[in-house]
Design a protein that fits this description.
The chain contains 27 helices and 45 strands. By secondary structure, it is of the alpha/beta class. Strand 21 and strand 22 form a beta hairpin. About 50% of the residues are buried. The radius of gyration is 35 Å and the shape is globular. It comes from Marivirga arenosa. Keywords: Coiled coil, Signal. GO terms for molecular function: hydrolase activity, acting on carbon-nitrogen (but not peptide) bonds. This is Amidohydrolase family protein. It holds the Pfam family Amidohydro_1.
Length: about 1000
C-alpha cells in the first residue's frame, strides 16, 4: 500500500517598520526611524559583488551602510540572518500594476472619428496625455504576488493604445500612493496594438505604423507653431525627454519594425520583445536596442495522439525546445536586456523559467543583472535602485540561495524599508530520510523539498496511501495521518519539536492513548538516492536541434550564399533578340549574368548540367499578397496613401518558399482593394531565409495601389458599412479628384515656403508635413507609380481621364478583366495591363471577363502580364501564362514574357531583370521541361547567383523535416511522461491574403 504525507506551511504573516507618516492617520502616529541591522548575512551588494558575513543597515527606507566591518547604530533592530542571503529586489518594467483595467469594447458599426471629446488627437489610439502616476492606486493583493516572486519596484504604465502616455516607477509597498510613487514620469510607451479603441483606423499593422509615424511629424510641426492647441501633441513632445519603451507584440520581426521606425526620427527605443529573438540575432543585434525579454517559455504540446501532432508546426515545436536558450544567445551576442515576468500566467513561475535558462548555460550573475541593475539603468534610476550600496532605496530580499534558481525560498521582501515575511528564517531544512517511530510502530519517512514550498512533501514507507497533514511554526511541528492497515494505531495526531537528530514529541492514537514519537534522520536525500544510468531517452532529451532561417519548415541552417555557377548545355530562353538558344552555357558570377555562349569554362565555378533542361529568366509576379503581416488592407478611410507594405514584409511566410518552387524570383506585394487610394507597395526578391530589409529591392521605383469597383464602394461589406465615402462608383471618381486637388495645393504651399529666404523661413512656421499628401505629390511628379485594381470598362476609362487632367499617367491596370474592351485607349494612355489568365464570374463586375483578354490587350500593343493575386496561383504562373497560348494563340516566347519580362517592364525592373542578358541580375530558373508545359517543374530557382530552391535537395530536406519532427515529438512525450505540464494542441490556419481580405482585429494576427 502507498502512504503519503502532504505538508502545508502556514507561516505567512506581515510585519513592518514605519517611516514618518506624511498623510492622515486616524489614531496614534508611529514616527520611529525604521532603523534595522541585518547581520551575519551573505550580502549581494549587486549582481557581481558578494560579501560574506556582512551587515546591511537601513534607516527610513534607505541603505545607510553595507559591508563586513559595519558598526551597528544604537537603537537598531537587529536581525541575525545566520548566513542567509540578501539580494537587491527585482525591478519589473512591463506591468500595469495599480492602473484601471482596460476593457475591450465592441463597435456597433463604423466609427470614422474619435469618441474622446476635446482638444485631443483625432485618433482614440493616441493616448499620449495619459500619466500613470495620476491614475495609480496601490492594490496590495496585486503587489503581494509580485513581492513573493522577488520584485520590489514596478514601472507601471498604460497597456492600451498605440502611444500610451507615461509610466511611473512605484514601490510595491502597501503605504500611501504619495510615498510609494518613486518617479512620476519615467518613460513614454508605444505599441503596435491600438487596444480598446473602436475607431476604424487603423485596421492593419501598417496602418498602426503609419499613424505613429504621422504623429512624430505632427509633433515636430506642432512645436514650431502657435495657431492651435492639441493636448495630445503637446504631451507627446514633453514625454520625448523620457526613455521611450516600445512593446511590439507579434514576433521577432516586430522588434526590427519598431527599431526601423525609431531610426526615422532619431529615437532609440527600449523594446519589449517576445522571447523568440534568438531566431534573428544578427538583425536584432544590429539595432543596438536594449530589450525587455519575457521568459514565458511554452509548455510541451500533448502529442500522444499522432493526428494532434500533425497540427503542431515545426516552428512551434522548435520554439518550445529553444526558447530557454534565448537569454544565453542574447548575452553571447552582446545585446543588453532586462528580464520581465510579463506574460507568465503565474508570476511565481519566474524562478522555474529562469532555472531552465540557467540549465542551458545562462549564468546566474547575468540573470540577476537583468532583473536589477539593468532595468534600473534603462529607466535612469540606477542611482536609487538595482543595488544595495549606501544611499539606495532599501529594496531587498532575504533568501536561502540564489533567487533565480527553482526551489530557492524567499523568506522576506523588504520594500522601502518595510518588511514582508513569507517564510520563517529559523525554519529548518527538513529534507532527508528518517526512521519514524510512533509508539511501537515503525515507519520509513522521507521528506523532500523545502518547507513551505510547492514541492515539499513527506512520504511514509515509499507509498502514498494515506493523506497526512502538517503545520510547521518555527521549531514546532504538528502532524496527523491515519494508518488504515493497523487498527491499533488508526488515526494519529502528533505534536512535536525539532531535536538534534530530527523530530520528536507526543502522539495520540485511535484508542485515545498517548505515545511517544520520534523521527531520526538517517540520510540526506541526495546521498541516499541511487545514481541512475542515463537511458537513450535521457540522452535524446538533452539534444537540441539547430537554428534554421527562417524559423519555419524548409528553413536552412545557414543562409544561402551567392556562388559562381556555370550552367551547361541548357536550352536558354533569353527574352532578347537572340530568342531561344539550344545547348548553351550561362555563367553566373558575382550575382550577375556574366557570360552566355557555348563551351564556356570558369575556375572555381559550380557546374550544373542543364542537358535536356530549360533555363529562363525568373518569374516576376506583378500582383501578390504573400509575405505580409497583420492585414493587407487599411480600409478604414477612402485614402490611405500614408501606409506602406514595406513596413510589414514577413520574411517567414512559407508561401515564399512555395513560390520559389514554382520559379518565382520577385513579387510586388500590394495593398488590397478596400479603398480608392490604398497603400504603397513593396517590391521584393524572394530571398528565403533573409531578413525583410534584405528582401526589398532597394533600387526599384516606388509604387502604390489604387482600386475601383465593388470593393471600393463596399458593395459586399454588409448593411452596416454604409458610412464611409464612397458608396458609389461616381463617388470614387470624386475621391480621386479631391485627393489630387489637395495634393496640388499642398505642393504649392511647400513650394511657397521653400522659396522664402532662410531669414524669412526662420520667422515662418513650416507647413504641416502630411504623409498621405506627400505620397500623392510623388504620383503627380512621376516619382511614384500606380497599380490600379480594376474590372469595369467605364471606371478604367474614368481613371485614365482623371490622371490626364492632373498631368500624370496610370502605370498598370491590374485584374483589368474588361481590358479587351478599351485596349486601344490603354495603348494611347501608355498604361500596361496585368491580368488573370482565365478567372471570371466570381462576382458581378467580372461577368464580362473572357480568357482571351491577355491576348487581345497584347495584340493591341499593351504591355501585358499575368499575375496571381493568390498564394496558390503564384507557384504555377508558368502554367497560367501557358493558357494564353490556348486562348488567343499567343506565341510561346511572348507568353513566357507575360510572367518574366513584361512584369519587369511594368515594375520598371527590366534594365536588370526579366531576360537573360549579360550584365543583368542572375535571377534565373532551370526547368525540367519546356517552361510553360504542365509537366515542367522548377529544378533550381536562383536569385542573384544564390540557389534558393533546389529540387535535388528537396527530398533530403523533407526527410530532415520528418526526422526533426519525430525527434521533437518524442522529446515532448518524454516531458509528459516525466510529469511536466503540457498544453493542448489547438489547430492553427494561416490567413491567405487576397485583394478583398479585410481584417478588423489585426492585433490577433501575426
Amino acid at each position: 500500500m502507498m502512504k503519503k504525507l502532504l505538508i502545508a506551511c502556514f507561516s505567512l504573516w506581515f510585519f513592518s517598520s514605519y517611516a514618518q507618516e506624511t498623510y492622515y492617520v486616524n489614531g496614534v502616529k508611529d514616527e520611529r526611524p525604521g532603523l534595522h541591522a541585518f547581520t551575519n548575512a551573505t550580502l549581494h551588494v549587486d549582481y557581481k559583488t558578494t560579501l560574506e558575513s556582512a551587515t546591511l543597515i537601513i534607516k527610513k527606507g534607505e541603505v545607510i551602510a553595507a559591508g563586513t566591518n559595519v558598526s551597528i547604530p544604537k537603537g537598531a533592530i537587529i536581525h541575525d540572518l545566520g548566513g542567509k542571503h540578501i539580494y537587491p529586489s527585482f525591478i519589473e518594467l512591463s506591468n500595469n500594476y495599480g492602473l484601471p483595467e482596460v476593457k475591450s469594447q465592441r463597435s456597433n458599426g463604423p466609427q470614422l472619428g474619435p469618441k474622446k471629446e476635446g482638444a485631443y488627437n483625432t485618433n482614440d489610439a493616441i493616448i499620449t496625455y495619459f500619466n500613470a502616476y495620476e491614475a495609480f492606486t496601490a492594490k496590495d493583493s496585486e503587489a503581494e504576488k509580485l513581492r513573493k516572486a522577488g520584485f520590489g519596484t514596478v514601472l507601471t504604465h498604460n497597456k492600451d493604445g498605440l502611444i500610451r502616455g507615461t509610466g511611473a516607477v512605484v514601490a510595491l509597498h502597501d503605504g500611501p500612493e504619495n510615498e510609494i510613487i518613486l518617479k512620476e514620469k519615467a518613460s513614454q510607451h508605444f505599441s503596435f496594438d491600438k487596444g480598446s479603441s473602436t475607431q476604424d483606423n487603423p485596421s492593419s499593422l501598417m496602418g498602426a505604423i503609419a499613424l505613429i509615424r504621422q504623429n512624430y511629424l505632427d509633433a515636430k510641426w506642432y512645436a514650431s507653431q502657435n495657431e492651435m492647441v492639441d493636448i495630445s501633441l503637446a504631451a507627446f513632445n514633453k514625454n520625448k525627454a523620457h526613455p521611450q519603451i516600445f512593446e511590439v507584440g507579434g514576433d521577432k520581426l516586430y522588434v526590427l519594425r519598431a527599431d526601423h521606425l525609431g531610426d526615422e526620427f532619431g529615437v532609440q527605443y527600449i523594446i519589449k520583445g517576445n522571447g523568440d529573438e534568438y531566431q534573428r540575432l544578427d538583425e536584432i543585434g544590429a539595432t543596438n536596442a536594449s530589450l525587455i525579454i519575457p521568459v514565458n517559455y511554452p509548455e510541451a504540446y500533448d502529442v500522444e495522439d499522432p493526428f494532434d501532432a500533425l497540427n503542431v508546426s515545426l516552428a512551434e515545436m522548435k520554439h518550445w525546445e529553444m526558447a530557454p536558450y534565448n537569454l544565453k544567445m542574447l548575452k553571447d551576442k552582446g545585446i543588453n536586456f532586462s528580464i520581465t515576468a510579463d506574460g507568465l500566467k503565474d508570476v511565481s513561475k519566474l524562478q522555474e523559467m529562469l532555472s531552465k535558462s540557467i540549465e542551458v548555460g545562462f549564468s546566474e550573475e547575468e540573470a540577476l543583472k537583468a532583473l536589477t541593475i539593468t532595468p534600473a539603468r534603462l529607466i535612469k534610476m540606477d542611482d536609487r535602485l538595482g543595488s544595495l550600496s549606501k544611499g539606495k532605496i532599501a529594496n531587498f530580499i532575504i533568501t536561502d540561495g540564489s533567487p533565480v534558481q527553482k526551489g530557492t525560498k524567499i523568506y522576506e521582501n523588504w520594500v522601502q524599508g518595510n518588511g514582508y515575511k513569507y517564510h520563517d528564517i529559523a525554519s529548518p531544512d527538513l529534507a532527508g530520510k528518517y526512521d519514524l517511530s510512533v509508539g511501537e510502530q515503525e515507519y520509513n519517512l522521507m521528506v523532500s523539498g523545502k518547507s513551505g514550498s510547492e514541492d515539499f512533501k513527506i512520504v511514509i514507507n515509499d507509498s502514498t496511501s494515506y493523506k497526512l497533514k502538517s503545520d510547521i511554526k518555527k521549531q514546532l511541528i504538528s502532524l496527523s495521518f491515519t494508518d488504515e492497515e493497523n487498527e491499533s494505531i488508526g488515526a494519529v495526531r502528533m505534536s512535536g519539536w525539532l531535536t538534534k537528530d530530527g523530530l520528536a514529541g507526543k502522539a495520540r492514537i485511535a484508542d485515545g492513548s498517548w505515545v511517544e514519537w520520534s523521527a531520526r534522520k538517517n540520510a540526506d536525500n541526495e546521498e541516499s538516492e541511487e545514481v541512475k544510468e542515463k537511458s537513450p531517452d535521457d540522452e535524446e532529451s538533452e539534444s537540441i536541434g539547430n537554428l534554421i532561417y527562417p524559423f519555419v519548415a524548409h528553413g536552412n541552417e545557414t543562409k544561402p550564399k551567392s556562388e559562381t555557377i556555370l550552367i551547361k548545355n541548357a536550352t536558354v530562353w533569353t527574352n532578347e533578340e537572340d530568342g531561344v538558344l539550344e545547348n548553351t552555357d550561362v555563367l553566373l558570377e558575382n550575382g550577375k549574368i556574366s557570360k552566355i555562349g557555348k563551351n564556356l569554362s570558369a575556375s572555381n565555378a559550380r557546374e550544373i548540367d542543364g542537358t535536356g533542361k530549360h533555363l529562363t529568366p525568373g518569374i516576376i509576379d506583378e500582383h501578390s499578397h504573400i509575405a505580409i503581416s497583420r492585414g493587407v488592407n487599411e480600409g478604414s478611410e477612402s485614402v490611405t496613401a500614408e501606409v506602406n507594405i514595406e513596413d510589414v514584409v514577413d520574411s517567414e511566410d512559407i508561401n515564399i518558399y512555395r513560390q520559389l518552387s514554382g520559379g518565382v524570383v520577385a513579387s510586388q506585394l500590394l495593398h488590397g482593394s478596400a479603398n480608392p487610394i490604398g497603400g504603397r507597395s513593396a517590391i521584393v526578391k524572394l530571398k528565403w531565409g533573409y531578413s525583410p530589409e534584405e528582401m526589398k529591392i532597394s533600387w526599384s521605383d516606388k509604387f502604390i495601389k489604387f482600386a475601383l469597383g465593388e470593393n471600393v464602394k463596399q458593395s459586399n461589406w454588409g448593411e452596416r458599412n454604409t458610412v464611409r465615402f464612397p458608396q458609389t462608383r461616381m463617388g470614387a471618381e470624386q475621391v480621386f479628384e479631391d485627393a489630387f486637388t489637395r495634393a496640388r495645393e499642398y505642393e504649392a504651399e511647400w513650394k511657397s515656403y521653400n522659396q522664402l529666404s532662410k531669414r524669412d523661413q526662420a520667422n515662418t512656421a513650416a507647413p504641416r508635413k502630411d504623409m498621405e499628401l506627400e505620397t500623392l505629390v510623388e504620383i503627380l511628379n512621376s516619382d511614384r507609380f500606380i497599380t490600379c485594381h480594376s474590372y469595369v470598362q467605364s471606371e478604367i476609362n474614368m481613371l485614365m481621364k482623371v490622371a490626364e487632367r492632373h498631368g500624370f499617367r496610370i502605370n498598370t491596370f491590374t485584374h483589368i478583366l474588361e481590358g479587351y474592351k478599351l485596349a486601344d485607349k490603354m495603348k494611347e494612355h501608355g498604361v500596361g495591363g496585368s491580368t488573370f489568365s482565365d478567372w471570371w464570374a466570381y462576382k458581378f463586375e467580372v461577368n464580362d471577363a473572357i480568357p482571351y483578354n491577355a491576348a487581345l490587350m497584347s495584340g493591341e500593343g499593351v504591355v501585358t502580364a499575368i499575375n496571381s493575386d493568390d498564394a496558390e496561383m503564384g507557384r504555377r504562373l508558368n502554367q497560367e501564362a501557358g493558357k494564353t497560348m490556348k486562348y488567343g494563340d499567343v506565341p510561346v516566347e511572348e507568353a513566357l514574357k507575360m510572367v518574366t519580362l513584361n512584369p519587369a517592364k511594368l515594375l520598371h525592373l527590366d534594365d536588370r531583370m526579366g531576360s537573360i542578358k549579360e550584365g543583368k541580375d542572375a535571377d534565373v530558373v532551370l526547368w525540367t521541361d519546356e517552361p510553360l508545359s504542365i509537366y515542367a517543374k522548377a529544378d533550381k530557382t536562383i536569385i542573384e547567383g544564390t540557389v534558393f530552391f533546389d529540387r535535388e535537395e528537396q527530398e533530403a530536406k523533407l526527410d530532415a523535416i520528418q526526422a526533426e519532427r519525430a525527434r521533437l515529438v518524442n522529446k515532448m512525450r518524454g516531458a509528459k511522461s516525466n510529469g511536466k505540464p503540457t498544453q493542448k494542441v489547438m489547430p492553427k490556419s494561416q490567413i491567405i491574403y487576397e485583394c478583398e481580405t479585410e481584417i478588423q482585429n489585426y492585433s490577433s494576427l501575426k
